[in-house]
Specification:
The protein has 369 residues and is mainly α. It has a single domain, classed as Amino acid/polyamine transporter I (Up-down Bundle), CATH 1.20.1740.10. It is built from 14 helices and 2 strands; from the N terminus they run H-H-H-H-H-H-H-H-H-H-E-E-H-H-H-H. Strands 1-2 form a two-stranded antiparallel sheet. Helix 2 runs parallel beside helix 8, helix 2 runs antiparallel to helix 9 and helix 3 packs antiparallel against helix 4. The longest helix is centred in the C-terminal third of the chain and has 35 residues. The N and C termini lie far apart (42 Å). Keywords: Germination, Membrane, Transmembrane, Transmembrane helix, Transport.
Length: 369
């Protein structure tokens, strides 16, 4: 099925932009709606879901070392229920990949290429990702290793250039309405953090398995710190108006002006978005293709790459009519759906698997006695 191997570091590089790429664009305004000036605290609470999800995925992998969730679910809850859950999970991933592509295209068309048909933007990205996915997990791992520095560098430069425009007083008052607003604000980014469950499709191919959990946890921490810094930067620049902006990071990038010469660096924000979106879509695409092949009991996942790509484009075109509905879906539907499919149900699977394993051990012990 997949003969390639990746390192735990490459897995971390794959997961970091998979979460951050879309989160840095929308999370500041979404968390500000609930947490106001405490929006920087929300990623801390949201990261708890990420840590839990990585722990669940790794423990499931330890119980079924060379299998993904599509394969071992049938062993935990039976063949038919396992097939049903596998189908629902794959549908979720394929549909979600389409929505990610749609969000990416809405951002590019709405902010930059206003006269370009959105279908062209979406199809070209899916086509590019399809070639990477067909190349296998090693190609995907190396691409992530190459692009993550390209993703991080413009983001760091963007934040450094904004230092003269930062109003640190915007952070006050801290916890004026208690701890609940930041917790409520953490639900939506918690949906993004639950995407760390995707490592269940990567863990079977790690060359250094003992570092799998550590790399996953480090990646969660890196994502959390990035979102805290981005949220604080946006808060310090935009203040109370943060919640009214659709793409706050784009808005703050327009404040940059160095000696009246170095201005209009929105292209740097777009570069961050495109590079990160490319890695994110590729990881989701790979998990969808690999999982579909395993669900169909195929010997190779590559024959399903192009059909899955067509489905992704269809979902991206037909799922939601415009950017307002994309944003509404990100706030109202995606978080609960994501946490349910990638954290809560896998936790139940882990509990069932552990209980059954203990029951088997107990039965074997009593038989020996």
């Amino acid at each position: 099925m997949e003969k390639g191997k990746i390192s735990s570091l490459q897995m971390a590089f794959m997961m970091y932009p998979t979460i951050v790429a879309t989160a840095i664009i929308g999370v500041p305004s979404i968390t500000a709606k609930y947490a106001k000036t405490d929006l920087w605290l929300s990623p801390i609470f949201a990261a708890l879901i990420g840590y839990l999800t990585v722990y669940i995925a790794y423990k499931l992998h330890q119980l079924f070392p060379k299998q993904t969730v599509i394969q071992f679910t049938e062993k935990i809850i039976g063949r038919i229920p396992g097939k049903i859950f596998g189908f629902l999970l794959l549908f979720f991933y394929i549909q979600n990949t389409g929505l990610i592509v749609r969000g990416y295209a809405e951002f590019v068309v709405g902010s930059f290429l206003v006269r370009t048909p959105i279908s062209v933007i979406m199809t070209s990205m899916v086509l590019l990702c399809a070639f990477i996915v067909r190349g296998g997990i090693e190609v995907l791992g190396r691409a992530a290793e190459l692009f993550v520095p390209v993703f991080i560098f413009p983001l760091c430069i963007l934040i450094l250039l904004l230092i003269p425009d930062l109003e640190f007083k915007n952070i006050f008052p801290v916890l004026a309405n208690g701890i609940m607003p930041p917790i409520k604000g953490s639900i939506v980014p918690g949906g993004w953090f639950s995407e760390f469950f995707l490592i269940i499709f990567l863990l079977p191919f790690l060359a250094d398995m003992k570092n799998g959990m550590k790399s996953g946890m480090k990646s969660v921490f890196a994502v959390m710190m990035t979102l805290i810094v981005v949220n604080l930067t946006v808060l310090f620049v935009l203040g109370a108006t943060t919640s009214s902006k659709l793409y706050p990071l784009m808005n703050v990038s327009r404040y940059i002006s160095v000696a009246d010469f170095f201005e209009h660096v929105e292209s740097a924000a777009m570069a961050v978005w495109i590079v990160g979106a490319f890695v994110k879509i590729s990881v989701f695409y790979y998990a969808s293709a690999l999982g579909t092949a395993q669900w169909l009991n195929l010997s190779d996942y590559r024959p399903v790459v192009w059909p899955i790509g067509i489905l992704i484009v269809i979902f991206s075109l037909w799922s939601l009519p415009n950017s307002v509905d994309v944003s509404r879906n990100d706030i109202n539907v995606f978080p609960l759906q994501s946490i349910l499919m990638q954290t809560i149900i896998p936790l139940l699977l882990l509990v069932i698997a552990v209980v059954r394993k203990r029951n088997r051990k107990g039965a074997e012990t009593s038989r020996m006695d």
